[in-house]
Amino acid sequence: MTKEAYQSILRAHVGPVLGDRTIAAVAQSRDDVIDLLTIRLGEGSNARRKIARALITGVLDEAVRAGKITMHRCGGITLPDNGGNGNHDDFVFPSHGQLLMLANGSKEPRVTGIKFPLTIWLMRGCGLRIEEALAVQKSCFRDNDTVLRVFEQASRDGRKTRPLKHRKAGEYRDIPVPAYLWEMVKDLSDGYFFMTDGKFPTYSSYRHGFNLNVGKAGIPEAFTPHSLRHAFVSALLSHGVPITDVAAWLGHRNINVTYAIYGHLVPSSLGRAQEALNAEYAEWSQAA
Predict the structure, then answer these.
(1) Which of 29, 134, 255, 266 could pair with 154 as two cysteines, CB 3.0-4.6 Å apart?
(2) What is the tens place of the pLDDT at every residue in 181-235?
(3) pTM
(4) The domain containing residue 157 runs over which residues?
């Protein structure tokens, strides 16, 4: 990798997440660094994620050597392979009942659910990322409420919106809306669903509440908000929806990214191909 590649990753990924923190704060931010490497950069190449990790740990290691901090908690972070045969630990698909408990809690007084339960269904039903889900508003539902138009995402500090990942301002993507999701939102007021006093929930506060309730819902700890996006993809591919369409709904500019992450979910076409070849041969041979 060139010097320009390191600078690009620093500007585009590491800086926006960690750039406003002190060295001491970054040293204790293991969870946020893991999120950066496995979610924000989760759809990128292994090489880019390794560079990001090296930039972070290199600075922290040097700070330890210089006596500015005594230690840091960001060492030893493993990076799952994004390849088709890679680690898919976060491909955890809970039952409907478990998601209900995660979103809404249970009758047990100490199990309260997450603060914004609708986000669970926006991510599960439309494959949104966290920041995209937090910026959804009523007017995003279009075409007789069958399409969700996503054109912005909440900033991680919750203070504003910004363009979609890898997109310019004004660019959008249209995603099919399952009927159950529209039933959940049809009676809600106009405007942003999750804005309070002019601010969105911060990324870190949302993740904190989400993580607290995963275990309470009986879901394996490897489950992340991104697992809901994986479930969205799995549902579509298992029912024969072309991966090219799925890639567009996910916001992947490069279909190879979609194949790298989700290729193992594409049903085998061997049986259908054999049937097609047999049928074609029968028609061809009889016409001779």
Answers:
(1) 134
(2) 999 999 999 999 999 999 999 998 999 899 989 989 999 988 999 999 999 999 9
(3) 0.70
(4) 96-239
Nearest to 17 by CA among 50, 52, 63: 52
Same domain, 56 and 133: no
Distance separating alpha carbons of residues 205 and 187, to the nearest angstrom: 27
Last residue of a domain, one of 18, 48, 65: 65
In a domain, 108, yes or no: yes
